[in-house]
Design goal:
- With 374 residues, this protein is of the alpha/beta class.
- The chain contains 14 helices and 14 strands.
- The strands form 4 sheets. A 7-stranded mixed beta sheet has the order 1-9-8-5-4-2-3, sandwiched between helices. The chain has a 3-stranded antiparallel beta sheet with strand order 12-13-14. A two-stranded antiparallel sheet has the order 6-7.
- α7 links the parallel β4 and β5.
- α2 runs antiparallel to α9, α3 packs parallel to α9 and α4 packs across α5.
- It is globular and about 70 Å long.
Length: 374
């Protein structure tokens, strides 16, 4: 599904220099590479403040903690996504309120958000899934009208650019109150372990996020609020600082592979729905996810596996179908109340997508898919 070793070999010397500099300094926690990486990421994304942390899930939890939400407050999020956002909501005693998604983009359906807003709603978590932005302009207007916070889950979409109707362009993660990033190794910008960060343009929020991530302290041994211990270690920051310089190149490589898939699979529209690119967002293709019709997804997956082609199902269950959330959102295991999300769970299949894909490999993958449907 991805070739991290091949990617590493191309920048091995730079990575080794960066890692050895950290080892020589022995500043393994809060070393200069952490602050330097945060500054570089701020410049890249356009975010006023970058607060590194231990991982993307911590970023979501710390962000919600910083908003002074109370147990029982409702948070709106998509029904088709990874569990991290809903998990962070539930861990804080908040109520996840799921909204169905758009079948074409796999992102939260903006039209359905309004009907989910109640007097208890306090925030919306738009998840920019698979590498493309949620339609943020109407979402931000809806949030403003209803006095709601917006916490962007940008784990899969760093570098994706949203264009507003007036032509203004902003990166995913910089449009809401807080943006949350993950640097898990498989992400478009991935480190050699776990890592995350929070983006914001609000100075007061930035200070609060930083405090919470450091045991609730702004000065050592003076704890002003309940926090946690969530740090991006210096070795990971050093790796990320190098890889950030190549992020646009990595995105271009993913886009090139995606365009090859799209050009060569478009004649199979009777069997497949391919990823779409919207008019308002670039797509950085964290995943290239097709939808397989007529219940043939699992058969195609098995066929490709036999041919040596790995695929993944992101995600085999929608959030409301997960046992931990089932009683909350689908009482009595009723028929699916989120038809598009449940349909996606039964039909999505992600093809190999990474920076090192060669045309020979892509040709083989495409032709095996064509063979299956012939």
């Amino acid at each position: 599904m991805l070739d991290l070793s091949g990617q590493y070999r191309k920048i091995q010397q730079e990575i080794e220099v960066a890692i050895h500099a950290v080892i020589d300094s022995a500043a393994f926690i809060n070393g200069t590479a952490v602050t330097d990486f945060a500054a570089d990421l701020s410049s890249y994304t356009g975010a006023g403040y970058v607060i590194p942390c231990a991982n993307g899930t911590d970023a979501l939890q710390i962000s919600l903690m910083a908003l002074d939400l109370k147990p029982g407050d409702e948070i709106i999020l998509p029904a088709f996504t990874y569990v991290a956002a809903a998990e962070a909501v539930a861990l804080l005693g908040l109520i996840p309120v799921f909204v169905d998604v758009d079948i074409k983009t796999c992102n939260i359906d903006i039209q359905k958000i309004q009907t989910a807003i109640t007097s208890k709603t306090r925030a919306i978590i738009p998840v920019h899934l698979f590498g493309q932005s949620v339609d943020m302009q109407p979402l931000l207007q809806m949030a403003k009208t209803n006095n709601l916070y917006v916490v962007e889950d940008t784990a899969q979409s760093i570098g994706a650019v949203y264009t507003f109707s007036d032509g203004t362009k902003k990166q995913c993660g910089t449009m809401g109150h807080i943006g949350c990033l993950s640097f898990f190794p498989s992400k478009n910008l991935g480190c050699f372990g776990d890592g995350g960060a929070m983006l914001t343009n609000d100075a007061a929020l930035a200070g609060k996020l930083k405090m919470i991530a450091s045991h609730g302290q702004s000065v050592k041994y003076r704890h002003e609020m309940i926090g946690c211990n969530s740090r991006l270690d210096t070795l990971q920051a050093a790796v990320l600082q190098v890889k950030l310089r190549y992020l646009n190149e990595y995105i271009a490589a993913r886009q090139k592979a995606a365009y090859y898939y799209t050009e060569n699979l478009q004649n199979l529209n009777e069997y497949l729905q391919l990823p779409v690119e919207t008019s308002y967002s670039t797509h950085v293709y964290h995943q290239y996810t097709i939808q397989v019709s007529n219940g043939k997804r699992d058969a195609l997956k098995a066929f490709l596996q036999e041919k040596g082609i790995p695929t993944m199902i992101y995600y085999p269950l929608s959030m409301p179908e997960q046992p931990v959330f089932n009683d909350m959102n689908q009482p009595g295991k009723a028929p699916c109340n989120f038809p598009q999300s449940c349909l996606l769970a039964q039909s999505v299949l992600s093809l190999p997508m990474h920076t090192e894909l060669e045309e020979e490999q892509l040709y083989y993958i495409v032709n095996q898919i064509k063979t299956f449907f012939s």
